[in-house]
Predict the structure.
Amino acid sequence: MFWESVIIAFEGLRANKLRSVLTMLGIIIGVGAVIAMVAIGIGMQQKVENSIAGLGSNLLIVVPGAASPSGGVRLAAGSNITLTYKDAQAIAREVDNVSAVAPAVSRQFQLVFGNQNWQTSVQGSTPEFLDVRNWNISSGSFFSSRDLDARARVVVIGQTLVTNLFGDINPVGQTIRINKAPFKVIGVFEAKGQNAAGQDQDDVAVIPLTTAQDRLMGITYVSNINVQADNADVIDQVQNEITSLLRIRHRIQPGAPDDFTVRNLAAIMATAAETTGAITTLLGCIAAISLVVGGIGIMNIMLVSVTERTREIGIRKALGATYHNILLQFLIEAIVLGVTGGLLGIVLGMVSAHIISTVAGWNTVVSFSAILLAFGVSVAIGLFFGIYPARKAALLDPIEALRHE
């Protein structure tokens, strides 16, 4: 009886193709929308996490200025010069479980090569910059401690500068001018692409910290200090030790606010993951509303089907069909609508996610769990909204049903 009911259900769908498609449309759109929206949400979540991870693993960033109650940085007068290179050296020397420390300064300058010029961010740092910030060199090399001590005029540039200044010319060994001062290109970074905020990470030039401070910017402070902990388990301990050390070095009295802020990227990543996860759930729930609309459509068409087939139901009952036979028949028809709509919706969702990724350039990740969930809900909705029409058909009085015109 079961497979016979399935065959009859498909024959009913085939006999009323347009009505069946319109009935399943809500389910198809609902399942497709859930899959596509969750794919967008997961893609956004991964992009944010990769962007934060791209700054460095187990990373703490010390910046000048006290933390404000809202979680930002409250800058007091002169507070942008509270961190120095000696602070960074003290952290590397006195704080346990620190694998690398890279202080940095940054400012916008115009770079010139031949008749080409480009405005970009020039950063001054130390040789530990590569390890702390997870950068790799595609050609040439990075500057050394000897270059740092000698305040050498050397620079390592990103792929965006290579494209806009050099074109097809190999930049390694060439001389460019930064703020009219000559610098030798000794290396090129591997491409990193855009971060979560849409900023081009390859639009950068890095020079020795001492060169940037003394020869280019004329400053004695640093903009930030990047500290890499040995592993994620000790990052909170390292953060506390850095805070204690800098309070002592800066002679901050007990009870007085810090003149610096230690940012924990692990905590930032956890917060970002929680936020983007909530957004993904919200998108999926909004899209799932159309699944309920599709379920109402299934109930509507099944009620119409019961009315149309009242005489058929009476004949079947007169020939010996039981309550459970009739109930099973109409439940299977409702479930077939849900299953068929769910399968078509899966195809629609995957295709939509691919189109969105290609056309809009968004990162989308189709989740297998989202597919299973959306499909399972579509089947459950077909079953739930099919129970009332099926029960109504099964409870029909055979004599009254035979009299029905």
Observations:
- Residues 265-308 form the longest helix (44 residues).
- The chain has two domains: 2-51+271-403, 83-249.
